[in-house]
Specification:
The chain is an alpha+beta fold. It is 36% helix and 19% strand.
């Protein structure tokens, strides 16, 4: 029987149809096998998948299939991060309801997922826009409200004029909206709902140490920097005349005698009291300008309020200024400026002619002189010109000065964090309704749990004008107060969609529970997530929120684990036309079209072969064509050899040459070892696929000399090795081999360490002193075995058959010389 041509559509659509209702991707309940929970970050249903998406899913899918083959009980689910602004904006642009748009996109994306044969347990599918899911968002909110972890206050917030809604601090990137890189964020004072993520700041920071080795170091560094713990002193300066306190946080209280002014953040509440109308306008301009500029150095600007504050240690008057570089989100929103010992303060004070007063000298030097100072001295040293603390080392002075502040009630030792409470209010429609009611008599009243879910109404007009469309739905807004029964109004802000994604991976474990978010016993079995896969762009947003949610759920008794994810992998981006592949850049390669043209196996194999998964890869059509040709070579070799060289049991009718068999078996075991090690440690799937390619090349080279038994063994093992990467082709060859059942549920092949040794000794074989061939054996092979292997070589056997063997001489690892007569 001749070889078959590789028709990817015929093969893939055949198995695609057979697998539609298959149950072999389902995770087992109460299994005695070890568990493995592998998860890719759930996608936003934008409508189509492109090659950039496929990379994420192909990595997770290969790992899931490998773990099944290693005997694990695998949980590999999928769902949809279905709320959010893009759906609402699309509704405004296209006059379509967000729900209709979202569900249509989910259907399209799910179809593509199935076409690519990703191994998801679809019985566990969740969609965050469905009431049975977001009901539990509301339940969590009520639990946090009970504990004071959810609260409402008026605050300066980040406003995106494009999204027409508030953003959390984590959603502001370089001064712009995380969704709109060219839209500067503005500052507005609004009543908003917050979650006290700061209650967990210290634990979030401390537990990062437990993630070392399982999470990428750059993600851990980003989280440490975002949480930003600082130890210092909180001190009260008193306003001259009124005695009103100005609380200042400093990490260097030992420099306080060098404080020559107090500087307020432009949005500090005291600015409204101390500044004149012109000052108010200048402060507002500073706030907006800083939001647009983002983090980093700013041109320092400020103005004097005309007021003074009293230094609690020295009793001196310090002028009160407003400065654009002081942040309301750090410390107390007010600083004492010590220009001699802080670079920012030095720059600001020298610009405005504010005095500079050195009070710390180097341990082995003198106090700086004003006429020669070019920069601030910022290191610890010895305190000078500071009353009773003069002469003390900086650290000892801080300790004693803290004690004095606490004893006399004007300050205390304090810890502050860069991270601030999570603002979750959004002034848009397509999100989870916040379950509270505003009553003129009772104030803010939680919706009773028995009334959950508060269902998002469908009859809404969309404007995108910065007010929630829910305000225009009387039947939603106008309700009776649950406490007094009087007329009341329902909250119309909806939740930040990062609430949805902060706990979805728990719901997968118990996706249809209508009595609780999930059964804690099921969580105890599956958690922590063994491997999580997603983009590094979520290092601060999703990943820090999900850690917070886990700790909150632990404290209300739902889970026992303190962290959600044991191991995190952040895959590199796919580049096309010199830029990250994305719809906004118009450079996407659609997954569906790719599957039609080359096949899903080609797409999956290409994206894994193109480079290490943590690195960027550059999409090229010609490279995909090369992968397609390789899969064709595998299929043609299999189909022409299965009937020709062996029967269905794998017994061979073709004897072959023992040396060729040994070379191929050696290469096979080396390949098995390489791919196993790649899965278990390095995740260099590109080298795994390269190893299979090398093995296939050697199979072609040795094909005429291989025995049927060796071909049978190698074909079986190659098919198993391909199964995690190219499941359609692997399954087709598995069927051609006469096997039944899903190939990825077979046992992963093992390698013989001796056969897999990288280096074999090349042994020269001579007959009567003349070179007649070579054999390859492991170094250190005994001389008697060397002689036997030489005699078995087909080329040598022809030369010595029928002749008298006088003797055979063997030199270990070098040669065999056979002496014959006749």
């Amino acid at each position: 029987m001749s070889e078959k041509p590789y028709d990817h559509n015929q093969i893939e659509l055949k198995w695609h149809a057979r697998w539609q209702n298959a149950t072999f991707y389902k995770a087992e309940e109460n299994s005695t096998r070890p568990k493995y929970y592998v998860l890719e970050m759930l996608p936003y249903p934008s409508g189509t998948l492109h090659v950039g998406h496929i990379r994420n899913y192909a990595i997770g899918d290969a790992l899931a299939r490998y773990k099944w083959m290693r005997g694990f009980n695998v949980l590999h689910p999928m769902g949809w991060d279905a709320f959010g602004l893009p759906a609402e904006n699309a509704a405004i642009a296209n006059q379509r309801h967000p729900r209709e748009w979202t569900l249509q996109n989910i259907a399209a994306m799910k179809k593509t997922h199935r076409r690519f044969a990703f191994s998801y347990d679809w019985d566990r599918e969740v969609s965050t826009c469905e009431p049975e899911y977001y009901r539990w968002n509301q339940w969590f909110f009520l639990k946090m409200l009970e504990r004071g972890m959810a609260y409402r206050k008026k605050a300066w917030v980040n406003w995106c004029p494009n999204c027409c809604t508030v953003l959390a601090n984590e959603q502001v990137v370089n001064g712009c909206c995380w969704r709109h890189e060219d839209t500067p964020v503005e500052q507005r004072a609004l009543e908003q709902w917050f979650l006290r993520i700061t209650d967990y700041a210290d634990e979030l920071l401390r537990d990062i140490d437990n993630l070392e080795g399982g999470w990428p170091e750059r993600v851990l560094t980003m989280q440490r920097n975002w949480i930003g713990r600082s130890e210092g002193t909180e001190v009260e300066f008193k306003l001259e005349g009124t005695g009103a306190p100005i609380r200042v946080f400093t990490t260097r209280v030992d420099t306080i005698f060098g404080a020559t002014c107090v500087i307020l953040a432009p949005e500090h509440p005291l600015v409204a009291q101390l500044a004149d109308p012109e000052g108010h306008a200048r402060a507002k301009a500073m706030v907006d300008a800083r939001a647009a500029q983002g983090p980093g150095d700013v041109v320092k600007e400020g103005f004097f309020t005309g007021h003074y504050a009293i230094n609690p240690y020295s009793g001196e008057k310090a002028p009160v200024w407003v400065g654009n570089f002081v942040l309301m989100t750090y410390g107390t929103g007010a600083i004492m400026a010590v220009p001699a010992h802080d670079e920012r303060d030095f720059e600001f004070c020298t610009k405005y002619g504010i005095p500079v007063r050195p009070v710390i000298r180097p341990v082995d030097g003198e106090l700086a002189r004003l006429e020669t100072m070019q920069t601030a001295f910022t290191e610890d040293g010895v305190v000078e010109d500071s009353g009773e603390w003069s002469g003390l080392p900086s650290a000892e002075a801080r300790r004693r000065m803290n004690a004095k502040a606490e004893a006399e009630g004007f300050g205390k030792g304090a810890v502050t964090y860069r991270i601030k409470d999570w603002g979750i209010s959004r002034q848009r429609y397509w999100g989870t309704p916040i379950p509270v009611i505003h009553c003129a008599q009772c104030g803010v009243v939680p919706v009773p749990e028995s009334d959950l879910p508060v269902v998002l109404p469908l009859n809404v007009q969309f404007t995108g004008r910065g007010r929630s469309p829910l305000e225009e739905v009387p039947e939603f807004v106008n309700v009776n107060c649950p406490q007094c029964g009087g007329a009341a109004r329902r909250e119309t802000d909806t939740m930040d969609t990062f609430v949805d994604s902060s706990w979805y991976f728990y719901r997968y474990c118990d996706a249809h529970n209508d009595r609780a978010p999930f059964d804690p016993a099921k969580i105890a079995y599956w958690f922590e997530i063994d491997q999580y896969i997603g983009g590094v762009e979520h290092a601060i947003l999703h990943l820090i929120y999900s850690r917070f949610f886990t700790k909150m759920m632990r404290d209300i008794g739902l889970v026992k684990n303190a962290e959600p994810v044991k191991r995190l992998f952040t895959q590199g981006m796919v580049i096309a036309e010199g830029a990250k592949m994305s719809k906004s850049k118009g450079n996407v390669v659609a997954a569906d079209g790719l599957a039609d043209r080359y096949g899903a196996d080609t797409a999956r194999l290409f994206i894994l072969f193109a480079g290490p998964p943590e690195k960027e890869v550059d999409w090229r059509d010609e490279r995909a064509e090369g992968i397609y040709r390789f899969l064709g070579r595998v299929y043609r070799f299999a189909t022409r050899n299965i009937p020709h060289k062996m029967d269905r049991a794998g017994a061979g009718g073709h004897a072959g040459e023992p040396e060729a068999d040994r070379r191929i078996v050696r290469k096979l075991h080396q390949t098995i070892r390489k791919i196993t090690e790649d899965f278990e440690s390095r995740w260099h799937f590109n080298t795994s696929i390269s190893g299979i390619m090398e093995l296939v090349n050697e199979l072609y080279a040795e094909e005429p000399r291989l025995s049927g038994a060796t071909v049978a063994e190698v074909l079986e093992k190659v098919t198993l090795l391909l199964a995690p990467f190219a499941p359609y082709l692997a399954q087709e060859i598995w069927e051609e081999l006469g096997r039944e059942g899903p190939v990825f549920r077979e046992t992963w092949p093992t390698y013989d360490a001796e056969l897999a040794k990288e280096d074999l000794a090349e042994i020269v074989v001579q007959v009567n002193g003349r070179l007649r061939g070579h054999i390859y054996v492991p170094f250190g092979t005994a001389v008697e075995i060397l002689k036997a292997r030489a005699m078995e070589d087909p080329k040598i056997r022809v030369l010595v058959e029928g002749k008298q063997i006088v003797k055979a001489i063997a030199v270990p690892d070098k040669l065999v010389n056979i002496v014959v007569k006749g």
